[in-house]
Write a structure and sequence with these properties.
The protein is α+β, with helices and mostly antiparallel strands. It has 3 domains: 102 residues, Arc Repressor Mutant, subunit A; 44 residues; 62 residues. The protein is 63% helix and 11% strand. A 4-stranded antiparallel sheet has the order 3-2-1-4. A hairpin with a 5-residue loop joins strand 1 and strand 2. Helix 2 crosses helix 4, helix 3 packs antiparallel against helix 4 and helix 9 packs antiparallel against helix 10.
Length: 226
């Protein structure tokens, strides 16, 4: 067939695949394309219908978009995802950028993905299970693919009524009880360094860490100098 020639095929057989919800379409006695039931019904294919090369391309594009959407829905069924997580997983499955972009647009429009809502939920659940500071929370959100502007905004909102000083103080007190067995530290410098490093790993700023050190170790220092 010469380049640019419009090919016309005739559907000679349609059969259901062993895999539920899928169909095989044959044209001119040869396998033409496999389709999900949604696309098969959408195009209303029947034996005897003519199919042009343009129509075949349209079928292939529609099928590819449907498969990308289904793959994304399977990911969301396991747990909430950020836009970047979905994009990365679909790329691993070798969907085209066009299909991925269309899928993400559809998911955003239907409210199935929303990075700001994901970030707010993540912060709420994370702080309930394991107290930590704004810096670490923000790093975790960025690793999930939340953009910096969204992460900054949601973190600031989430911590507006959440006292980091109180949380860090409680966390520091529990840490001291664990490492000292509840007794007064005998080596304030060593304990001070360990406590500061611990709170730093939990994402608290140096200003908050200093306040905790002052509150929790002040009395023991005064007792040592009295």
């Amino acid at each position: 067939m010469a380049p640019g020639t419009r090919r016309i095929m005739r559907i000679t057989r349609i059969e259901r695949q062993k895999k539920r919800g899928r169909w095989n379409v044959y044209a001119d006695g040869e396998f033409l394309i496999g389709l999900s039931e949604d696309i098969f019904l959408q195009f209303g294919l029947r034996v005897g219908d003519e199919v042009t090369s343009e129509q075949l391309d349209a079928l292939a594009r529609a099928e590819s978009r449907t498969m990308a959407k289904r793959a994304a829905m399977r990911l969301l069924a396991r747990r909430p995802r950020t836009i970047r997580e979905i994009r990365d997983r679909l790329r691993v499955q070798e969907f085209s950028d066009a299909d991925i972009n269309t899928t993400i647009d559809d998911l955003k429009e239907s409210g199935l993905v929303n990075d700001a809502e994901f970030a707010a939920m993540y912060i709420r659940d994370t702080l309930a299970l394991r107290p930590m500071g704004k810096l670490l929370v923000k790093r975790k959100l960025l690793l999930h693919g939340i953009d910096k502007a969204t992460a900054d905004h949601v973190v600031d909102q989430a911590f507006h009524e959440h006292s980091q000083d109180d949380a860090a103080l409680l966390l520091g007190r529990k840490y001291l009880q664990r490492v000292t067995g509840g007794s007064t530290p005998s080596d304030n410098l060593k304990v001070r360094r360990r406590l500061a490093a611990f709170l730093g790993r939990r994402g608290y700023s140096w200003e908050i860490i200093q306040n905790v050190l002052k509150s929790l170790l002040k009395s023991s220092e005064e007792e040592g100098t009295s």
